[in-house]
Amino acid sequence: MWTEDTELTWDNYGDPPFVDPDMPMNALTSAKPTVEMTSMQKGGNVELKFVVETVFSPRDSWAIEKNGPDFLLKQEQIRFDIAELFSRKLRKALQDYTYSNNYAEEYIRVYNRIVAERNDYQALYDFETQYGGNQKKQKAWAKEVEKSLENFSDYTDAEFIVNARITPGQTEN
């Protein structure tokens, strides 16, 4: 789970499932936003309770060298921070959305959109930093991600509640 104080170490990583000499990366961090939603009918509304967390999976994270260079571990830390950034963006998007009777489908669409944005952002990060090989770019990205995390500091609470307005006569979830 991501926290302000979470610093990854090589001890968080397992062995790679295989080693391909043409593989562009020396480590993989498996971290992503997760979301749980529960609902409760309250008069003409449905109260939606969300829990959005950033989860790191040691089982799916690996490193070729367990004592790799510091810049490579920093690369992986930034990946984890990017996952938290998109958890915050997801929290904001879920809170800003105007829900209807189809709230279950709607929140999944919001989640899928944010995950797609994260995947694109992550791919750009990997490309521009050359998987950590371009340390100048990596430092610039570290500053960018840190600034973005600050810009979304209002969305650090994992748990929040929003309301969906139910229209009588329409199918409810």
Major β-sheet strand ordering:
2-3-5
Taken from the alpha-carbon principal axes, the silhouette is elongated
Distance between the termini: 30 Å
Helix content: 40-55%
Instruction: Encode the helix/strand succession as letters.
Output: EEEEHHHE
Number of strands: 5
Number of helical segments with 4 or more residues: 3
Task: Give me the Rg, rounded.
Answer: 19 Å
Q: Estimate the mean pLDDT confidence.
A: 89
Proportion in β-strands: 15-25%
The largest pleated sheet is described as: 3 strands, antiparallel
User: Structural class given helices, strands, pairing?
Assistant: alpha+beta
Are there runs of 5+ residues with pLDDT below 50, and where?
none
Comma- or semicolon-separated keywords:
41% helix, 173 residues, three-stranded antiparallel β-sheet
Description:
The chain has a domain of about 120 residues. The longest helix has 27 residues. The model has no long low-confidence stretch (mean pLDDT about 90). The chain contains three helices and five strands; from the N terminus they run ββββαααβ. The protein has a three-stranded antiparallel beta sheet with strand order 2-3-5. It is α+β, with helices and mostly antiparallel strands. About 25% of the residues are buried. Helices cover about 40% and strands about 20% of the residues. β2 and β3 form a beta hairpin.
